[in-house]
Amino acid sequence: MTQPTQTLDRSLKIILGVDDSREMQKLLQAIICHAGYVYVGSSSGDSALAEIAARNPFDVILLDVEMPGMDGFATCAQIRKHPNGKTVPVIFLTFHNTVTDFEKCKAAGGNDFMMKPFTGKTLIERLDRWSSQLIDVPVAS
Fold first, then answer.
1. pTM score, two decimals?
2. What is residue 115's three-state secondary structure?
3. Which fold has domain 11-131?
Protein backbone atom coordinates (compact mmCIF):
# COMPACT_ATOMS: atom_id res chain seq x y z
CA MET A 1 0.00 0.00 0.00
CA THR A 2 1.42 3.37 -0.95
CA GLN A 3 1.24 6.42 1.22
CA PRO A 4 -0.48 9.49 -0.25
CA THR A 5 2.00 12.23 -1.03
CA GLN A 6 1.44 15.78 0.03
CA THR A 7 2.42 18.54 -2.35
CA LEU A 8 3.10 22.14 -1.54
CA ASP A 9 1.07 24.58 -3.64
CA ARG A 10 3.61 27.36 -3.92
CA SER A 11 1.17 29.62 -5.78
CA LEU A 12 -0.75 30.05 -2.52
CA LYS A 13 2.36 31.07 -0.55
CA ILE A 14 3.47 34.69 -0.25
CA ILE A 15 7.10 35.47 0.52
CA LEU A 16 8.22 38.89 1.77
CA GLY A 17 11.82 39.73 0.86
CA VAL A 18 13.39 42.61 2.76
CA ASP A 19 16.71 43.85 1.38
CA ASP A 20 17.99 47.33 0.60
CA SER A 21 19.94 46.11 -2.44
CA ARG A 22 18.05 46.49 -5.71
CA GLU A 23 20.15 43.70 -7.23
CA MET A 24 19.31 41.32 -4.38
CA GLN A 25 15.62 42.20 -4.70
CA LYS A 26 15.72 41.33 -8.42
CA LEU A 27 17.54 38.06 -7.70
CA LEU A 28 15.10 37.05 -4.95
CA GLN A 29 12.12 37.89 -7.12
CA ALA A 30 13.47 35.90 -10.09
CA ILE A 31 14.27 32.79 -8.04
CA ILE A 32 11.11 32.85 -5.93
CA CYS A 33 8.66 33.60 -8.75
CA HIS A 34 10.30 31.05 -11.05
CA ALA A 35 9.65 28.43 -8.35
CA GLY A 36 5.97 29.40 -8.31
CA TYR A 37 5.78 31.43 -5.11
CA VAL A 38 4.28 34.91 -4.89
CA TYR A 39 6.95 37.49 -4.04
CA VAL A 40 6.57 40.88 -2.37
CA GLY A 41 9.68 43.01 -2.10
CA SER A 42 10.55 45.61 0.49
CA SER A 43 13.67 47.76 0.66
CA SER A 44 13.70 48.70 4.35
CA GLY A 45 12.56 47.64 7.78
CA ASP A 46 9.97 50.41 7.89
CA SER A 47 8.44 49.47 4.54
CA ALA A 48 8.44 45.79 5.57
CA LEU A 49 6.48 46.63 8.70
CA ALA A 50 3.99 48.59 6.60
CA GLU A 51 3.57 45.56 4.28
CA ILE A 52 3.02 43.28 7.28
CA ALA A 53 0.43 45.64 8.76
CA ALA A 54 -1.42 45.95 5.44
CA ARG A 55 -1.72 42.24 4.59
CA ASN A 56 -2.71 38.93 6.01
CA PRO A 57 0.35 37.17 7.39
CA PHE A 58 3.10 36.26 4.96
CA ASP A 59 4.15 32.62 4.74
CA VAL A 60 7.89 33.38 5.09
CA ILE A 61 9.90 36.56 5.55
CA LEU A 62 13.44 36.79 4.14
CA LEU A 63 15.28 39.51 6.04
CA ASP A 64 18.62 41.13 5.30
CA VAL A 65 20.70 41.93 8.37
CA GLU A 66 22.56 45.04 7.21
CA MET A 67 20.20 47.77 6.09
CA PRO A 68 20.32 51.53 6.58
CA GLY A 69 18.01 52.83 9.28
CA MET A 70 16.45 49.88 11.06
CA ASP A 71 18.69 46.82 10.70
CA GLY A 72 17.37 43.27 10.32
CA PHE A 73 17.59 42.50 14.04
CA ALA A 74 15.47 45.52 15.02
CA THR A 75 13.07 44.84 12.15
CA CYS A 76 12.57 41.24 13.26
CA ALA A 77 11.90 42.32 16.83
CA GLN A 78 9.22 44.73 15.53
CA ILE A 79 7.74 42.05 13.25
CA ARG A 80 7.31 39.74 16.25
CA LYS A 81 5.31 42.43 18.07
CA HIS A 82 2.75 42.71 15.27
CA PRO A 83 -0.22 40.28 15.18
CA ASN A 84 0.55 39.45 11.51
CA GLY A 85 4.17 38.70 12.33
CA LYS A 86 4.06 36.59 15.47
CA THR A 87 4.07 33.16 13.79
CA VAL A 88 5.64 33.85 10.39
CA PRO A 89 8.98 32.08 9.88
CA VAL A 90 11.81 34.60 9.44
CA ILE A 91 14.97 33.62 7.59
CA PHE A 92 17.87 36.03 7.95
CA LEU A 93 20.07 36.57 4.89
CA THR A 94 23.58 37.82 5.61
CA PHE A 95 27.23 37.81 4.58
CA HIS A 96 28.23 37.31 8.23
CA ASN A 97 28.71 33.77 9.50
CA THR A 98 29.93 33.96 13.06
CA VAL A 99 28.31 32.20 15.99
CA THR A 100 27.57 35.63 17.46
CA ASP A 101 25.67 36.64 14.29
CA PHE A 102 23.62 33.45 14.42
CA GLU A 103 22.83 34.03 18.11
CA LYS A 104 21.73 37.62 17.35
CA CYS A 105 19.39 36.32 14.65
CA LYS A 106 17.82 33.84 17.07
CA ALA A 107 17.58 36.42 19.87
CA ALA A 108 15.77 38.82 17.53
CA GLY A 109 13.16 36.15 16.77
CA GLY A 110 14.59 34.61 13.60
CA ASN A 111 14.02 30.97 12.74
CA ASP A 112 16.79 30.34 10.24
CA PHE A 113 19.98 31.86 8.92
CA MET A 114 21.28 31.76 5.32
CA MET A 115 24.65 32.93 4.15
CA LYS A 116 24.99 35.17 1.12
CA PRO A 117 25.76 34.16 -1.54
CA PHE A 118 23.31 31.26 -1.68
CA THR A 119 22.05 29.09 -4.51
CA GLY A 120 18.53 29.25 -5.85
CA LYS A 121 18.12 25.57 -5.01
CA THR A 122 19.07 26.13 -1.37
CA LEU A 123 16.75 29.13 -1.08
CA ILE A 124 13.78 27.23 -2.50
CA GLU A 125 14.47 24.21 -0.27
CA ARG A 126 14.36 26.50 2.77
CA LEU A 127 11.21 28.25 1.56
CA ASP A 128 9.52 24.90 0.93
CA ARG A 129 10.43 23.77 4.43
CA TRP A 130 9.42 26.92 6.27
CA SER A 131 6.35 27.85 4.23
CA SER A 132 4.65 24.62 5.19
CA GLN A 133 4.67 25.35 8.92
CA LEU A 134 3.80 28.06 11.39
CA ILE A 135 5.98 28.60 14.42
CA ASP A 136 5.40 29.77 17.96
CA VAL A 137 7.61 32.65 18.99
CA PRO A 138 7.77 33.65 22.65
CA VAL A 139 7.07 37.33 23.04
CA ALA A 140 9.53 39.18 25.25
CA SER A 141 7.86 41.08 28.05
1. 0.88
2. strand
3. Rossmann fold (3.40.50)
